[in-house]
Amino acid sequence: MIDSTDNVTHMLPVTGPLRLQFETDQPDAARVFVADLQQDLLGDWILTQLWSGKPQARGGGRRSVVSDQEAGFRLIQKIALKKEKSGYRLR
Fold first, then answer.
1. Nearest alpha-carbon partner for 79 in 56, 69, 90, 68
2. Interval 47-58: pLDDT, tens
3. Within a 10 A sphere around the Cβ of 76, how many other Cβ atoms?
4. Please, what's the largest Cα pairwise distance for the chain?
5. Residues 31-40: pLDDT tens digits?
6. Based on CB atoms within 10 Å of each CB, which residue in 10, 37, 60, 62 is the most buried?
7. What is the arithmetic mean of pLDDT over 8-12?
């Protein structure tokens, strides 16, 4: 985008969604975890976390509003570190 006041090209803000999917390697306890950051139609940033349990167990999920995209990125980064330490791998 070119700023009309000084004719300098500036980067546009990144407002695209971010999705990370993790899974375990254990065949008897295959688990999946998804962290998804998206902006809704009102401009709020929503962090959705979904997980599946063991084959006979139910999964679950959680949605939370974060203050801005940067806060959502920081939260997803913390989640990713925690999942990798727990034996999940990024898919």
1. 90
2. 999 998 766 677
3. 19
4. 62
5. 889 999 999 8
6. 37
7. 55
Q: Answer whether 48's CB lies under 8 Å from 61's CB.
A: yes
Of the candidates 89, 84, 81, the residue with the CA atom closest to the CA atom of residue 25 = 89
Look at residue 1 in the predicted model and tell me its pLDDT: 47
Beta-bridge partners for 46: 38, 65
CA–CA distance, 52 with 29 (Å, rounded to integer): 10
- Let me know: does 76 contact 11? Beta carbons within 8 Å: no
Amino acid occupying residue 14: V
Residue 7 Rama label (left phi>0; alpha psi -120 to 50; beta): left
Residue found under tokens 């980067």: 11
How far apart are alpha carbons 60 and 68 in whole angstroms? 24
pTM attached to this predicted model: 0.73
Residues near 82 by beta carbon (within 8 Å), at least 6 away in sequence: none
